[in-house]
Each structure stands twice: as structure tokens, then as C-alpha cells.
Design a protein that fits this description.
It is found in: Cytoplasm. The structure is a single chain. With 289 residues, the protein is α/β, with parallel strands linked by helices. It has two domains: 215 residues, TIM Barrel, CATH 3.20.20.60; 35 residues, no CATH class. Helices cover 41% and strands 13% of the residues. Strands 1-2-3-4-5-6-7-8 form an eight-stranded parallel beta barrel, surrounded by seven helices. Helix 5 links the parallel strand 3 and strand 4. Helix 4 runs parallel beside helix 5 and helix 8 packs parallel to helix 9.
Length: 289
């Protein structure tokens, strides 16, 4: 079978025109990326949600550029034929343009991403434009923006009233005008997300934003319930429960080691008896001990 060819921003925009839904998954390491690519995913997002999901932080705020570069590099090795987008972490694109481009360069050159994602709307449009003009594709992100969770008062649904809906539409248009190739809509009411998707020429990718978006993104660990003490989320559908399987498998391993059921005869390597006799003396080694 011919190798899969990675999409690019031209392909992605054409998929919107052709009404072909886009699939994106958030992954953070080599095996997850490899499996996602083998399954046929269109895009992989290396999200700063790795702070919550794999590093154990309460929010995404402690995540650094070094974290993002490290995990992006691993994903890029695992999914060499998939379009990879990487989040710029908290406060790395709110200073000077030179500082922002320095961090973008690291993600692209050291992490081997194909694009970066920035959270925010009209207030970061000039930054998005500068990054695009530097030759780097940018994916926007509006609605619930986790890096601003302390400012917006928690993980709240966006677009629930007319004023907020108008703000989201203006933000989306500002990002499109600035040159973003697409926009993630997170925890936005379905009606507002659909209206934004219809208005824009660039694709929208929803997470908790309903059925009217041009594509969907979910986190690898949510899709597979790959965590301990999983917290159910209304906007997530889980397609497999590997968390229980992992826990059960490790528990069985622990039990078999404790009871000496593992390793069994089929798991060991035997030396030639002459070698054993020469080292320890004839008949002095009990292989079962």
C-alpha cells in the first residue's frame, strides 16, 4: 500500500469547499502518533493540554516551550506522513514579535511541526499576521481558551448570549483576515459555531462546538479513556476503554510475579549443560530456583 501523504493548508481549505469533514486528534508521544496515523487521522495537534493529560498539572499554564518542542519531536517521529500542529504555550506570543518568532522558530525547527496554534481572537490578530508573513501556518483558537481560564472564570460554555456570539464572530473574522488557515472552536454553542463556520472561507475544527463545524478534534486519551479516574465530558465520545484493560493487565502481571507464575518455561533461555557444568560443577544448578 502506498504511504499516506500529509495534508497541507491548501488541501485543508479545499476539504472545506468540498464539504469533507476534517479529523484531528490531540496526541503527545511517538506511539500515540503512530497509531493515529495508521488509523487515518488527517491532523495531529500537539496540545499544551499535555500539561493536564500527561504531566499532571491542574492547568496548561505551567507548560513551557521546551515541553512543546520535546513532545512535538516525538509525535513527528511517529507520524511522518500527517500534518502536525503545535500549541504555543502560555505567554509566549504576547510580548514582542521578535520574541514570538523566536519561540515559533524553535517549535518548527526543533520540534518539526508543520504549523502552530495560538489562542485568542482580534487581540492577537497582528501577531498571527506576523507569524504567517514569516512563512508559518497558523491555526487560530477561540471560544473556551484554556490559557485564559483564570481570566474567563473557569471552563464555561461560550456564545450563550448575543453579545458573546457577536464577539466570537468578530474574533473569527479577524483571525481569518490575519491569515490563519483554520480556527478551533472550543466549547461554543452549536448555533454560533455553525454560523461562524458558514461565514468563514477557512475550516473550523470543533471541540464541544456541535455538528456545524468543518471538522472535529478530541484528545487521544479521551477517545480511548486512557487515564486513571476518568472524568466524563459531555462533548466527548469514547470509542474504547483501554484504561481498564491496562489496569487489569498490570494487575495480572503483578499477581503472576508474586506467585512465580511468570516467567514460565516459555520465557527463559537455557544455557548448554556443558557450559553450566564447566562454570558451577556438574549437577549444581537448579534451573527452577
Amino acid at each position: 500500500m502506498a504511504a499516506k501523504r500529509a495534508l497541507n493548508i491548501v488541501n485543508l481549505k479545499k476539504m472545506k469547499q468540498d464539504k469533507i469533514p476534517l479529523t484531528m486528534i490531540t496526541a503527545y508521544d511517538y506511539p500515540s502518533a503512530s497509531l493515529a496515523e495508521e488509523a487515518g487521522i488527517d491532523m495531529i495537534l500537539v496540545g499544551d493540554s499535555l500539561g493536564n493529560v500527561v504531566l499532571g498539572y491542574e492547568t496548561t499554564i505551567p507548560v513551557t516551550v521546551e515541553d512543546m518542542v520535546y513532545h512535538t519531536r516525538a509525535v513527528a517521529r511517529g507520524a511522518q506522513h500527517t500534518f502536525i500542529v503545535t500549541d504555543l504555550p502560555f505567554m509566549t506570543y504576547h510580548g514582542s514579535i521578535d520574541e514570538t518568532l523566536r519561540e515559533v522558530r524553535r517549535v518548527m525547527q526543533e520540534g518539526h511541526a508543520h504549523a502552530v496554534k495560538l489562542e485568542g481572537g482580534a487581540e492577537i490578530a497582528s501577531t498571527v499576521q506576523a507569524v504567517v508573513q514569516a512563512g508559518v501556518p497558523v491555526l487560530g483558537h477561540i471560544g473556551l481558551t484554556p490559557q485564559s481560564v483564570n481570566q474567563i472564570g473557569g471552563y464555561r460554555i461560550q456564545g450563550k448570549d448575543e453579545k458573546d456570539a457577536r464577539r466570537l464572530m468578530e474574533d473569527a473574522k479577524a483571525l481569518e483576515q490575519a491569515g490563519a488557515f483554520g480556527i478551533v472552536l472550543e466549547l461554543v454553542t452549536e448555533e454560533v459555531a455553525a454560523a461562524i463556520s458558514k461565514e468563514l472561507a477557512i475550516p473550523t475544527i470543533g471541540i464541544g462546538a456541535g455538528r456545524g463545524c468543518d471538522g472535529q478534534v478530541l484528545v487521544f486519551h479521551d477517545v480511548l479513556k486512557y487515564t486513571s479516574a476518568y472524568r466524563e465530558k459531555k462533548f466527548v465520545k469514547t470509542y474504547a476503554d483501554i484504561g481498564d484493560q491496562i489496569r487489569s493487565g498490570i494487575s495480572e502481571y503483578v499477581n503472576e510475579v508474586k506467585t512465580r507464575a511468570f516467567p514460565g518455561e516459555q520465557h527463559v533461555f537455557a544455557a548448554d549443560e556443558k557450559v553450566v557444568d564447566g562454570l558451577y560443577g556438574k549437577g549444581k544448578v537448579d534451573r527452577q530456583s
